[in-house]
């Protein structure tokens, strides 16, 4: 049987650009497939710059804790493409299997008949085909890039459209000002459907609210219509329905409190407000989202570190991601002091300097590494140069393994805390090398 990897490689050749924001090609293919996007369960559509995947993860954990069957579509994947498509099942969803994925890819390829189409358009059409053929109670659908012209934005009547915190990223496609990016993200709002807006900085908040009102969406604004905060070691959520007093989330970092609150608001706005309190409680405790402030406690890479070291992994890669990640590491440092070493690899398309700035005065040193198989990856030497520019001590290495092994050359006052970050592609490399891929 032909592999999904071989088919995916073929899809890359169907359009000269990896990204070409438009809805025309996906609409053509979906029509030829018999409109699977019109045969889906209720859809909660999630866009934003940071926190999309975590917000989806919270919603999935809560819904599955309530016994519902949940489809999930996210991107990019970390290790295998199959991670993007989670097919709901009673008791918990599973990544799509190879055989079914290949059969669906072939059908989409045959129906497309060689017409120009991007990789993401072809694979999203395949995901919709799969979701439409498996019954479920809800589909959690993550935007790929932007919103207005993103391939996922073919859902005419979502149960809710959600925008997580908006900041600068993908400026070459979405604009170089946060207000322009917010307007693109707001493109998923639909007339009559709830528009759930996470707590935002004032500029993007104003744009998102104005766009929601312009299209006639029903607004649910973080900080106004719903609030979330920590109190006495608990997470307290409140809206017009009342208050939920919950355990703090399993996902670490105060930014995850915002994502958890946004997830709860989205579920309530989308018609899932009558879930038992126990489902929200269990959701906070069981939520998982690999590569996002994930502590690696087993695997091959642990054995390369000095004995007693902590190893953490995060896919953060833009300035706002760097800020919330540094805040989270500072909070961990306050509770359990250890010298922080940042192992970093980034893409040339990202603001590496902005990502690293928050670690000044926090990270003891930066170990710059390459990202395998990514033509857009910054050379490790350049990453180290940028780190020095922002005032961080830095060295570069030919591989992740060499960087980790170098920690034995330093005499530490206590075992170091090692954070690997800078790119989701690097996070995927780490999980693969460690032998702990997402499941």
TrEMBL record:
<dbReference type="InterPro" id="IPR018109">
    <property type="entry name" value="Folylpolyglutamate_synth_CS"/>
</dbReference>
<keyword id="KW-0289">Folate biosynthesis</keyword>
<comment type="pathway">
    <text>Cofactor biosynthesis; tetrahydrofolylpolyglutamate biosynthesis.</text>
</comment>
<dbReference type="GO" id="GO:0046872">
    <property type="term" value="F:metal ion binding"/>
</dbReference>
<dbReference type="InterPro" id="IPR036565">
    <property type="entry name" value="Mur-like_cat_sf"/>
</dbReference>
<keyword id="KW-0479">Metal-binding</keyword>
<dbReference type="InterPro" id="IPR013221">
    <property type="entry name" value="Mur_ligase_cen"/>
</dbReference>
<dbReference type="GO" id="GO:0046654">
    <property type="term" value="P:tetrahydrofolate biosynthetic process"/>
</dbReference>
<keyword id="KW-0436">Ligase</keyword>
<keyword id="KW-0547">Nucleotide-binding</keyword>
<dbReference type="Pfam" id="PF08245">
    <property type="entry name" value="Mur_ligase_M"/>
</dbReference>
<comment type="pathway">
    <text>Cofactor biosynthesis; tetrahydrofolate biosynthesis; 7,8-dihydrofolate from 2-amino-4-hydroxy-6-hydroxymethyl-7,8-dihydropteridine diphosphate and 4-aminobenzoate: step 2/2.</text>
</comment>
<dbReference type="InterPro" id="IPR036615">
    <property type="entry name" value="Mur_ligase_C_dom_sf"/>
</dbReference>
<dbReference type="GO" id="GO:0005737">
    <property type="term" value="C:cytoplasm"/>
</dbReference>
<comment type="similarity">
    <text>Belongs to the folylpolyglutamate synthase family.</text>
</comment>
<dbReference type="InterPro" id="IPR004101">
    <property type="entry name" value="Mur_ligase_C"/>
</dbReference>
<comment type="function">
    <text>Functions in two distinct reactions of the de novo folate biosynthetic pathway. Catalyzes the addition of a glutamate residue to dihydropteroate (7,8-dihydropteroate or H2Pte) to form dihydrofolate (7,8-dihydrofolate monoglutamate or H2Pte-Glu). Also catalyzes successive additions of L-glutamate to tetrahydrofolate or 10-formyltetrahydrofolate or 5,10-methylenetetrahydrofolate, leading to folylpolyglutamate derivatives.</text>
</comment>
<dbReference type="Pfam" id="PF02875">
    <property type="entry name" value="Mur_ligase_C"/>
</dbReference>
<dbReference type="InterPro" id="IPR001645">
    <property type="entry name" value="Folylpolyglutamate_synth"/>
</dbReference>
<keyword id="KW-0067">ATP-binding</keyword>
<dbReference type="GO" id="GO:0005524">
    <property type="term" value="F:ATP binding"/>
</dbReference>
<dbReference type="GO" id="GO:0004326">
    <property type="term" value="F:tetrahydrofolylpolyglutamate synthase activity"/>
</dbReference>
<dbReference type="GO" id="GO:0046656">
    <property type="term" value="P:folic acid biosynthetic process"/>
</dbReference>
<feature type="domain" description="Mur ligase C-terminal">
    <location>
        <begin position="308"/>
        <end position="423"/>
    </location>
</feature>
<protein>
    <recommendedName>
        <fullName>Dihydrofolate synthase/folylpolyglutamate synthase</fullName>
        <ecNumber>6.3.2.12</ecNumber>
        <ecNumber>6.3.2.17</ecNumber>
    </recommendedName>
</protein>
<dbReference type="GO" id="GO:0008841">
    <property type="term" value="F:dihydrofolate synthase activity"/>
</dbReference>
<feature type="domain" description="Mur ligase central">
    <location>
        <begin position="46"/>
        <end position="266"/>
    </location>
</feature>
<keyword id="KW-0460">Magnesium</keyword>
